[in-house]
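Methods — Computational structure assignment.
A single polypeptide chain was analysed. Its primary sequence is given first, followed by the predicted tertiary structure written as C-alpha coordinates.
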Amino acid sequence: IGAVTIRAHMTDMGGLVMGGWETAKANVFHDGLRLPPMPLFSQGRPVVPTFKLIYANTRLPDMIVPDLETMYHSLELGEQLLVETIDKYGFEAYTGAVRYACDASAESLSDALRTIPDGVYEGEEWLDGDGRPDSPEYVVRVRITKVGERAEFDFRNSSRATRGALNCAWPDIKTSVAMALKFLVDQRNPVTSATLRTVDCVVPPDAIINPFPPHACMFYSTVVRVTVWAIFKALNPALGADAIASCGQGVQAQTECFRPDGSQYPTQVGGSSSAPWGATRHADADSGQQVFNANMLYEGGVEASERISPMVVLRSEYVPDSAGAGTNRGGASSISDHMWLAPTRHRFQTLAQKRPQAGGGVYGGRAGAYGATWMWDGAASDHGTRPPFFPAALRDGAYRSARPTGGKFDPVSNEHDPQSDTYVSLGDMLPAETGAIVRSLSYSGGGWGDPLQRDPERVLRDVRDEYVSVEGAARDYGVVVSGDPAQDPEGVRVDVAATEALRASLRGS
Protein backbone atom coordinates (compact mmCIF):
# COMPACT_ATOMS: atom_id res chain seq x y z
CA ILE A 1 0.00 0.00 0.00
CA GLY A 2 2.75 2.41 0.93
CA ALA A 3 5.06 3.39 3.74
CA VAL A 4 4.98 5.55 6.82
CA THR A 5 8.16 7.41 7.66
CA ILE A 6 9.70 9.77 10.19
CA ARG A 7 12.63 12.07 9.51
CA ALA A 8 13.88 13.57 12.76
CA HIS A 9 16.92 15.24 14.25
CA MET A 10 19.24 13.28 16.52
CA THR A 11 21.16 15.01 19.31
CA ASP A 12 24.31 13.38 17.99
CA MET A 13 25.24 11.07 15.13
CA GLY A 14 28.97 10.61 15.60
CA GLY A 15 31.25 12.40 13.17
CA LEU A 16 33.63 15.29 13.66
CA VAL A 17 31.60 17.27 16.23
CA MET A 18 28.51 16.67 18.34
CA GLY A 19 25.37 17.01 16.29
CA GLY A 20 27.35 17.64 13.11
CA TRP A 21 27.27 21.46 13.48
CA GLU A 22 30.53 22.28 11.74
CA THR A 23 30.59 23.99 8.36
CA ALA A 24 34.25 23.26 7.73
CA LYS A 25 33.89 19.49 7.61
CA ALA A 26 35.87 18.34 4.58
CA ASN A 27 33.72 15.42 3.42
CA VAL A 28 30.69 13.29 4.13
CA PHE A 29 32.68 10.98 6.40
CA HIS A 30 33.01 13.88 8.84
CA ASP A 31 29.24 14.25 8.90
CA GLY A 32 28.55 11.26 11.09
CA LEU A 33 28.04 7.52 11.33
CA ARG A 34 27.25 6.13 7.88
CA LEU A 35 25.01 3.05 7.82
CA PRO A 36 23.63 1.07 4.90
CA PRO A 37 19.93 0.10 5.17
CA MET A 38 19.77 -2.00 8.34
CA PRO A 39 16.81 -3.20 10.42
CA LEU A 40 16.42 -1.52 13.79
CA PHE A 41 13.48 -3.67 14.82
CA SER A 42 12.26 -7.09 13.75
CA GLN A 43 8.91 -8.57 14.78
CA GLY A 44 8.51 -5.79 17.33
CA ARG A 45 11.87 -6.32 19.04
CA PRO A 46 15.11 -4.32 18.77
CA VAL A 47 17.83 -5.79 16.54
CA VAL A 48 20.60 -5.84 19.14
CA PRO A 49 23.69 -5.67 16.83
CA THR A 50 22.33 -2.54 15.12
CA PHE A 51 21.67 -0.83 18.42
CA LYS A 52 25.13 -1.79 19.69
CA LEU A 53 26.67 -0.22 16.60
CA ILE A 54 24.75 3.02 17.16
CA TYR A 55 25.41 2.99 20.89
CA ALA A 56 29.18 2.71 20.37
CA ASN A 57 29.37 5.48 17.74
CA THR A 58 27.40 8.36 19.25
CA ARG A 59 28.34 10.67 22.09
CA LEU A 60 24.92 10.55 23.79
CA PRO A 61 23.62 7.00 23.32
CA ASP A 62 21.39 7.21 26.40
CA MET A 63 19.43 9.93 24.56
CA ILE A 64 19.68 8.52 21.03
CA VAL A 65 18.41 4.99 21.73
CA PRO A 66 15.17 6.07 23.51
CA ASP A 67 14.55 8.53 20.65
CA LEU A 68 14.80 5.71 18.11
CA GLU A 69 12.45 3.55 20.17
CA THR A 70 9.93 6.40 20.33
CA MET A 71 10.13 6.82 16.56
CA TYR A 72 9.54 3.11 16.05
CA HIS A 73 6.41 3.07 18.17
CA SER A 74 5.17 6.22 16.42
CA LEU A 75 5.55 4.44 13.09
CA GLU A 76 3.67 1.45 14.48
CA LEU A 77 0.82 3.76 15.40
CA GLY A 78 0.91 5.36 11.96
CA GLU A 79 0.67 1.96 10.28
CA GLN A 80 -2.21 0.95 12.55
CA LEU A 81 -4.18 4.13 11.79
CA LEU A 82 -3.61 3.80 8.05
CA VAL A 83 -4.76 0.17 8.00
CA GLU A 84 -7.81 1.04 10.09
CA THR A 85 -8.67 3.83 7.65
CA ILE A 86 -8.48 1.46 4.67
CA ASP A 87 -10.51 -1.18 6.49
CA LYS A 88 -13.18 1.42 7.23
CA TYR A 89 -13.43 3.16 3.84
CA GLY A 90 -11.97 0.64 1.40
CA PHE A 91 -8.83 0.52 -0.72
CA GLU A 92 -10.39 2.37 -3.66
CA ALA A 93 -11.47 5.25 -1.43
CA TYR A 94 -7.98 5.46 0.05
CA THR A 95 -6.14 5.51 -3.28
CA GLY A 96 -8.73 7.91 -4.67
CA ALA A 97 -8.10 10.29 -1.77
CA VAL A 98 -4.35 10.16 -2.43
CA ARG A 99 -4.86 10.89 -6.14
CA TYR A 100 -7.26 13.72 -5.34
CA ALA A 101 -4.84 15.33 -2.85
CA CYS A 102 -2.00 15.16 -5.38
CA ASP A 103 -4.10 16.44 -8.30
CA ALA A 104 -5.53 19.29 -6.23
CA SER A 105 -2.03 20.36 -5.15
CA ALA A 106 -0.74 20.31 -8.74
CA GLU A 107 -3.75 22.20 -10.09
CA SER A 108 -3.50 24.82 -7.36
CA LEU A 109 0.12 25.64 -8.18
CA SER A 110 -0.60 25.60 -11.93
CA ASP A 111 -3.38 28.15 -11.41
CA ALA A 112 -1.04 30.26 -9.27
CA LEU A 113 1.69 30.20 -11.93
CA ARG A 114 -0.75 31.61 -14.46
CA THR A 115 -0.98 34.78 -12.34
CA ILE A 116 2.71 35.53 -12.96
CA PRO A 117 3.28 37.35 -16.27
CA ASP A 118 5.04 35.19 -18.84
CA GLY A 119 8.70 36.02 -19.12
CA VAL A 120 12.24 35.33 -17.94
CA TYR A 121 13.21 36.30 -14.39
CA GLU A 122 16.65 36.16 -12.80
CA GLY A 123 17.87 36.36 -9.21
CA GLU A 124 20.90 35.50 -7.12
CA GLU A 125 21.91 35.31 -3.49
CA TRP A 126 25.37 35.02 -1.95
CA LEU A 127 27.06 33.21 0.91
CA ASP A 128 30.11 34.82 2.50
CA GLY A 129 32.13 31.60 2.50
CA ASP A 130 32.25 27.97 3.55
CA GLY A 131 33.58 28.49 7.07
CA ARG A 132 37.17 27.61 6.18
CA PRO A 133 40.14 30.01 5.96
CA ASP A 134 40.51 32.11 2.80
CA SER A 135 37.17 30.93 1.48
CA PRO A 136 35.74 32.35 -1.73
CA GLU A 137 32.18 33.62 -1.80
CA TYR A 138 29.49 31.34 -3.20
CA VAL A 139 26.39 32.22 -5.16
CA VAL A 140 23.09 30.55 -6.01
CA ARG A 141 21.72 31.90 -9.30
CA VAL A 142 18.34 31.10 -10.78
CA ARG A 143 16.88 31.88 -14.20
CA ILE A 144 13.12 31.32 -14.28
CA THR A 145 11.37 30.91 -17.62
CA LYS A 146 7.62 31.03 -17.14
CA VAL A 147 4.99 30.34 -19.83
CA GLY A 148 1.34 29.79 -18.91
CA GLU A 149 1.08 27.17 -16.17
CA ARG A 150 4.62 25.89 -16.70
CA ALA A 151 7.95 27.14 -15.40
CA GLU A 152 11.59 26.13 -15.57
CA PHE A 153 13.97 26.99 -12.73
CA ASP A 154 17.51 26.87 -14.11
CA PHE A 155 20.33 26.91 -11.53
CA ARG A 156 23.22 26.11 -13.87
CA ASN A 157 25.10 29.37 -13.20
CA SER A 158 25.45 28.64 -9.49
CA SER A 159 28.79 28.05 -7.76
CA ARG A 160 30.63 24.78 -7.62
CA ALA A 161 30.30 22.64 -4.50
CA THR A 162 31.97 24.16 -1.45
CA ARG A 163 34.94 22.64 0.34
CA GLY A 164 32.92 22.10 3.53
CA ALA A 165 29.40 21.09 4.56
CA LEU A 166 27.66 24.14 3.07
CA ASN A 167 25.95 22.29 0.22
CA CYS A 168 22.51 20.88 -0.50
CA ALA A 169 21.51 17.89 -2.61
CA TRP A 170 19.33 18.14 -5.71
CA PRO A 171 16.10 17.03 -3.95
CA ASP A 172 16.55 20.05 -1.66
CA ILE A 173 16.22 22.29 -4.72
CA LYS A 174 12.71 20.93 -5.27
CA THR A 175 12.02 21.83 -1.64
CA SER A 176 13.36 25.36 -2.21
CA VAL A 177 11.27 25.93 -5.33
CA ALA A 178 8.10 24.57 -3.74
CA MET A 179 8.66 26.66 -0.60
CA ALA A 180 9.28 29.88 -2.53
CA LEU A 181 6.21 29.42 -4.75
CA LYS A 182 4.06 28.60 -1.74
CA PHE A 183 5.17 31.82 -0.08
CA LEU A 184 4.74 34.00 -3.15
CA VAL A 185 1.74 32.76 -5.11
CA ASP A 186 0.07 29.67 -3.62
CA GLN A 187 -0.24 29.95 0.14
CA ARG A 188 -3.43 27.99 0.80
CA ASN A 189 -2.77 24.41 -0.30
CA PRO A 190 -0.43 21.78 1.13
CA VAL A 191 2.64 20.47 -0.64
CA THR A 192 2.42 16.95 -2.09
CA SER A 193 4.57 14.89 -4.40
CA ALA A 194 2.64 16.41 -7.32
CA THR A 195 3.00 20.09 -6.38
CA LEU A 196 5.75 20.68 -8.96
CA ARG A 197 4.06 18.67 -11.71
CA THR A 198 4.30 21.63 -14.12
CA VAL A 199 7.71 22.86 -12.90
CA ASP A 200 11.12 21.70 -14.08
CA CYS A 201 14.30 22.20 -12.06
CA VAL A 202 17.68 22.19 -13.83
CA VAL A 203 20.81 21.76 -11.70
CA PRO A 204 24.47 21.56 -12.76
CA PRO A 205 26.84 18.71 -11.84
CA ASP A 206 28.91 18.92 -8.66
CA ALA A 207 27.51 22.30 -7.64
CA ILE A 208 26.66 23.85 -4.29
CA ILE A 209 23.09 22.65 -4.98
CA ASN A 210 24.05 19.23 -6.37
CA PRO A 211 27.38 18.09 -4.88
CA PHE A 212 28.96 14.79 -5.86
CA PRO A 213 30.38 12.45 -3.20
CA PRO A 214 32.29 12.77 -0.98
CA HIS A 215 31.11 16.38 -0.41
CA ALA A 216 29.21 16.94 2.85
CA CYS A 217 25.69 18.43 3.02
CA MET A 218 25.09 18.99 6.73
CA PHE A 219 24.20 22.67 6.22
CA TYR A 220 21.75 21.98 3.41
CA SER A 221 19.10 24.10 5.14
CA THR A 222 21.26 27.23 4.82
CA VAL A 223 21.59 26.69 1.08
CA VAL A 224 17.84 26.04 0.86
CA ARG A 225 17.17 29.42 2.47
CA VAL A 226 19.61 31.17 0.13
CA THR A 227 17.91 29.51 -2.84
CA VAL A 228 14.50 30.70 -1.66
CA TRP A 229 15.87 34.25 -1.33
CA ALA A 230 17.26 34.09 -4.88
CA ILE A 231 13.81 33.06 -6.14
CA PHE A 232 12.25 35.91 -4.14
CA LYS A 233 14.64 38.34 -5.84
CA ALA A 234 13.71 36.97 -9.24
CA LEU A 235 9.92 36.95 -8.86
CA ASN A 236 9.13 39.79 -6.42
CA PRO A 237 9.44 42.54 -9.08
CA ALA A 238 6.73 40.81 -11.13
CA LEU A 239 4.31 40.51 -8.21
CA GLY A 240 3.75 44.20 -7.49
CA ALA A 241 1.84 44.68 -4.25
CA ASP A 242 1.85 40.92 -3.64
CA ALA A 243 5.63 40.88 -3.21
CA ILE A 244 6.98 39.54 0.09
CA ALA A 245 9.92 41.21 1.85
CA SER A 246 13.01 39.33 2.90
CA CYS A 247 13.17 37.47 6.17
CA GLY A 248 16.17 37.58 8.42
CA GLN A 249 18.15 34.75 9.90
CA GLY A 250 19.75 34.07 13.23
CA VAL A 251 23.42 33.50 13.88
CA GLN A 252 24.63 30.31 15.46
CA ALA A 253 27.56 29.66 17.75
CA GLN A 254 28.68 26.06 17.88
CA THR A 255 29.85 25.45 21.44
CA GLU A 256 31.84 22.61 22.95
CA CYS A 257 31.73 22.29 26.73
CA PHE A 258 33.03 19.36 28.77
CA ARG A 259 32.34 18.11 32.28
CA PRO A 260 35.24 17.47 34.70
CA ASP A 261 35.11 13.76 33.84
CA GLY A 262 35.72 14.56 30.17
CA SER A 263 32.19 13.88 28.93
CA GLN A 264 30.59 16.49 26.73
CA TYR A 265 27.48 18.49 27.54
CA PRO A 266 24.65 17.97 25.03
CA THR A 267 25.14 21.45 23.59
CA GLN A 268 26.00 22.26 20.02
CA VAL A 269 24.39 25.57 19.16
CA GLY A 270 24.09 28.78 21.12
CA GLY A 271 23.60 32.32 19.89
CA SER A 272 20.36 33.54 18.39
CA SER A 273 18.32 31.32 16.10
CA SER A 274 15.50 33.84 16.08
CA ALA A 275 14.75 34.85 12.51
CA PRO A 276 12.43 37.82 11.92
CA TRP A 277 10.17 37.54 8.90
CA GLY A 278 9.54 40.00 6.10
CA ALA A 279 6.45 42.17 5.78
CA THR A 280 3.64 41.71 3.27
CA ARG A 281 0.80 43.92 2.06
CA HIS A 282 -1.37 42.37 4.78
CA ALA A 283 0.49 43.22 7.99
CA ASP A 284 3.72 43.77 9.90
CA ALA A 285 5.98 40.76 10.16
CA ASP A 286 6.65 38.56 13.18
CA SER A 287 9.90 39.20 15.03
CA GLY A 288 10.56 36.17 17.25
CA GLN A 289 10.22 33.31 14.80
CA GLN A 290 12.52 30.54 13.70
CA VAL A 291 13.86 30.65 10.17
CA PHE A 292 10.94 30.40 7.76
CA ASN A 293 11.58 26.80 6.74
CA ALA A 294 11.29 25.78 10.41
CA ASN A 295 8.29 28.00 11.25
CA MET A 296 8.20 27.68 15.01
CA LEU A 297 8.78 29.94 17.99
CA TYR A 298 12.36 29.87 19.24
CA GLU A 299 12.66 31.90 22.41
CA GLY A 300 10.60 29.52 24.54
CA GLY A 301 13.61 27.19 24.83
CA VAL A 302 15.59 29.35 27.25
CA GLU A 303 14.81 27.37 30.41
CA ALA A 304 15.38 24.03 28.70
CA SER A 305 18.77 25.19 27.38
CA GLU A 306 19.85 26.38 30.80
CA ARG A 307 18.78 23.09 32.38
CA ILE A 308 20.98 20.89 30.20
CA SER A 309 23.94 23.23 29.66
CA PRO A 310 26.22 25.22 32.00
CA MET A 311 25.10 28.60 30.75
CA VAL A 312 22.71 31.43 31.57
CA VAL A 313 20.71 33.44 29.05
CA LEU A 314 21.31 36.99 30.25
CA ARG A 315 19.34 38.75 27.57
CA SER A 316 17.00 37.94 24.74
CA GLU A 317 15.17 40.96 23.37
CA TYR A 318 14.36 42.95 20.26
CA VAL A 319 16.53 45.80 18.99
CA PRO A 320 14.82 49.16 18.40
CA ASP A 321 15.04 50.65 14.88
CA SER A 322 16.36 47.39 13.42
CA ALA A 323 13.27 46.32 11.46
CA GLY A 324 13.00 47.22 7.79
CA ALA A 325 10.80 50.33 7.62
CA GLY A 326 7.68 50.33 5.49
CA THR A 327 3.96 50.89 5.37
CA ASN A 328 4.13 47.50 7.03
CA ARG A 329 7.42 46.98 8.84
CA GLY A 330 9.55 43.88 8.97
CA GLY A 331 10.30 41.86 12.07
CA ALA A 332 12.88 43.32 14.44
CA SER A 333 16.33 41.91 15.08
CA SER A 334 16.88 39.93 18.27
CA ILE A 335 19.92 40.31 20.48
CA SER A 336 20.89 37.45 22.81
CA ASP A 337 23.60 37.20 25.47
CA HIS A 338 24.65 33.76 26.70
CA MET A 339 27.10 33.50 29.61
CA TRP A 340 28.95 30.20 29.98
CA LEU A 341 29.70 28.88 33.47
CA ALA A 342 32.52 26.56 32.43
CA PRO A 343 35.46 26.69 30.01
CA THR A 344 34.24 26.39 26.42
CA ARG A 345 35.25 26.46 22.77
CA HIS A 346 33.16 28.39 20.25
CA ARG A 347 32.86 28.52 16.51
CA PHE A 348 30.58 31.10 14.96
CA GLN A 349 28.50 30.06 11.97
CA THR A 350 28.06 33.47 10.33
CA LEU A 351 27.59 32.51 6.71
CA ALA A 352 25.72 35.45 5.18
CA GLN A 353 26.68 38.67 6.90
CA LYS A 354 28.04 40.83 4.07
CA ARG A 355 24.85 41.74 2.23
CA PRO A 356 21.20 42.49 3.03
CA GLN A 357 19.35 39.29 2.26
CA ALA A 358 16.89 38.79 -0.58
CA GLY A 359 17.08 42.41 -1.67
CA GLY A 360 15.69 43.74 1.59
CA GLY A 361 12.36 45.53 1.43
CA VAL A 362 9.78 45.38 -1.35
CA TYR A 363 7.23 47.71 -2.95
CA GLY A 364 9.06 50.73 -1.56
CA GLY A 365 9.93 49.18 1.78
CA ARG A 366 13.46 49.26 3.18
CA ALA A 367 15.93 46.51 3.97
CA GLY A 368 16.34 45.26 7.50
CA ALA A 369 19.49 45.32 9.63
CA TYR A 370 22.50 43.03 9.26
CA GLY A 371 23.57 40.45 11.83
CA ALA A 372 26.75 40.11 13.89
CA THR A 373 28.33 38.25 16.81
CA TRP A 374 30.78 39.18 19.57
CA MET A 375 32.46 37.38 22.47
CA TRP A 376 33.66 38.65 25.83
CA ASP A 377 36.18 36.17 27.27
CA GLY A 378 35.68 35.57 30.98
CA ALA A 379 39.44 35.59 31.65
CA ALA A 380 39.92 38.94 29.90
CA SER A 381 37.06 40.81 31.55
CA ASP A 382 36.46 42.17 35.01
CA HIS A 383 33.05 40.60 35.52
CA GLY A 384 34.23 37.01 35.98
CA THR A 385 31.16 34.89 36.60
CA ARG A 386 28.99 37.91 37.46
CA PRO A 387 26.58 38.99 34.72
CA PRO A 388 27.63 42.24 33.05
CA PHE A 389 25.05 44.93 32.71
CA PHE A 390 26.12 46.57 29.49
CA PRO A 391 23.14 47.61 27.38
CA ALA A 392 21.69 45.98 24.30
CA ALA A 393 22.42 49.13 22.29
CA LEU A 394 24.66 48.68 19.26
CA ARG A 395 26.61 51.85 20.12
CA ASP A 396 28.38 51.45 23.44
CA GLY A 397 31.89 51.52 24.88
CA ALA A 398 31.49 47.94 26.12
CA TYR A 399 32.28 46.66 22.64
CA ARG A 400 35.88 47.81 22.95
CA SER A 401 36.53 44.89 25.32
CA ALA A 402 34.73 42.39 23.07
CA ARG A 403 36.12 40.29 20.26
CA PRO A 404 34.15 40.59 17.00
CA THR A 405 33.48 37.05 15.79
CA GLY A 406 31.21 37.45 12.78
CA GLY A 407 29.93 40.31 10.65
CA LYS A 408 31.02 43.86 9.79
CA PHE A 409 32.56 46.10 12.44
CA ASP A 410 34.15 49.45 13.10
CA PRO A 411 37.86 48.52 13.39
CA VAL A 412 38.42 50.86 16.36
CA SER A 413 35.27 50.61 18.48
CA ASN A 414 34.29 47.01 17.52
CA GLU A 415 30.73 48.28 17.13
CA HIS A 416 28.51 46.80 14.46
CA ASP A 417 28.90 48.79 11.22
CA PRO A 418 27.21 47.45 8.05
CA GLN A 419 29.08 50.04 5.95
CA SER A 420 32.53 49.00 7.17
CA ASP A 421 35.09 47.18 5.06
CA THR A 422 36.19 45.27 8.17
CA TYR A 423 34.57 41.85 7.82
CA VAL A 424 35.18 39.09 10.36
CA SER A 425 34.46 35.40 9.89
CA LEU A 426 36.29 33.06 12.24
CA GLY A 427 37.33 29.72 10.80
CA ASP A 428 38.66 28.02 13.92
CA MET A 429 37.33 27.02 17.32
CA LEU A 430 37.86 29.85 19.81
CA PRO A 431 38.64 28.83 23.41
CA ALA A 432 37.16 30.84 26.28
CA GLU A 433 37.41 30.75 30.05
CA THR A 434 34.56 30.52 32.55
CA GLY A 435 32.36 33.60 32.35
CA ALA A 436 32.63 34.08 28.59
CA ILE A 437 29.66 35.83 27.03
CA VAL A 438 28.50 35.37 23.47
CA ARG A 439 26.34 38.13 22.00
CA SER A 440 24.37 37.40 18.85
CA LEU A 441 22.51 39.92 16.72
CA SER A 442 20.15 38.44 14.15
CA TYR A 443 19.20 39.93 10.82
CA SER A 444 15.86 41.69 10.74
CA GLY A 445 13.08 41.46 8.18
CA GLY A 446 12.49 43.83 5.28
CA GLY A 447 9.60 46.27 5.08
CA TRP A 448 6.70 46.46 2.60
CA GLY A 449 5.56 49.74 1.08
CA ASP A 450 6.57 53.39 1.50
CA PRO A 451 7.42 54.11 5.18
CA LEU A 452 5.96 57.61 4.82
CA GLN A 453 2.58 55.98 4.18
CA ARG A 454 2.52 54.19 7.51
CA ASP A 455 -0.28 55.35 9.80
CA PRO A 456 1.29 57.64 12.44
CA GLU A 457 -0.74 55.88 15.15
CA ARG A 458 0.95 52.58 14.20
CA VAL A 459 4.33 54.30 14.45
CA LEU A 460 3.31 55.67 17.86
CA ARG A 461 2.43 52.17 19.03
CA ASP A 462 5.83 50.93 17.87
CA VAL A 463 7.53 53.75 19.80
CA ARG A 464 5.52 52.90 22.90
CA ASP A 465 6.49 49.22 22.55
CA GLU A 466 10.15 50.15 21.80
CA TYR A 467 10.28 48.60 18.35
CA VAL A 468 11.06 52.13 17.12
CA SER A 469 12.82 54.98 18.95
CA VAL A 470 11.60 58.57 18.97
CA GLU A 471 14.52 59.45 16.71
CA GLY A 472 13.83 56.49 14.42
CA ALA A 473 10.17 57.48 14.09
CA ALA A 474 11.21 60.85 12.68
CA ARG A 475 14.10 59.58 10.58
CA ASP A 476 12.46 56.49 9.04
CA TYR A 477 8.74 57.32 9.07
CA GLY A 478 8.57 61.10 9.23
CA VAL A 479 6.51 60.90 12.42
CA VAL A 480 7.23 63.37 15.23
CA VAL A 481 6.58 61.80 18.65
CA SER A 482 6.74 63.70 21.91
CA GLY A 483 7.22 62.17 25.34
CA ASP A 484 9.44 59.55 26.98
CA PRO A 485 8.50 55.97 26.00
CA ALA A 486 10.83 54.47 28.61
CA GLN A 487 9.53 56.46 31.61
CA ASP A 488 5.97 57.20 30.49
CA PRO A 489 4.95 54.96 27.56
CA GLU A 490 1.28 55.85 27.85
CA GLY A 491 2.10 59.56 27.72
CA VAL A 492 3.76 59.64 24.28
CA ARG A 493 1.85 61.47 21.56
CA VAL A 494 2.08 62.22 17.84
CA ASP A 495 2.61 65.87 16.96
CA VAL A 496 0.25 65.94 13.98
CA ALA A 497 1.26 69.31 12.55
CA ALA A 498 4.98 68.63 12.89
CA THR A 499 4.51 65.19 11.34
CA GLU A 500 2.72 66.60 8.29
CA ALA A 501 5.46 69.17 7.82
CA LEU A 502 8.27 66.62 8.23
CA ARG A 503 6.72 64.15 5.82
CA ALA A 504 6.19 66.87 3.23
CA SER A 505 9.85 67.82 3.60
CA LEU A 506 11.04 64.21 3.30
CA ARG A 507 8.93 63.62 0.20
CA GLY A 508 10.30 66.78 -1.35
CA SER A 509 13.86 65.71 -0.71
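Note: Residues 181 and 326 are 23 Å apart (CA to CA).
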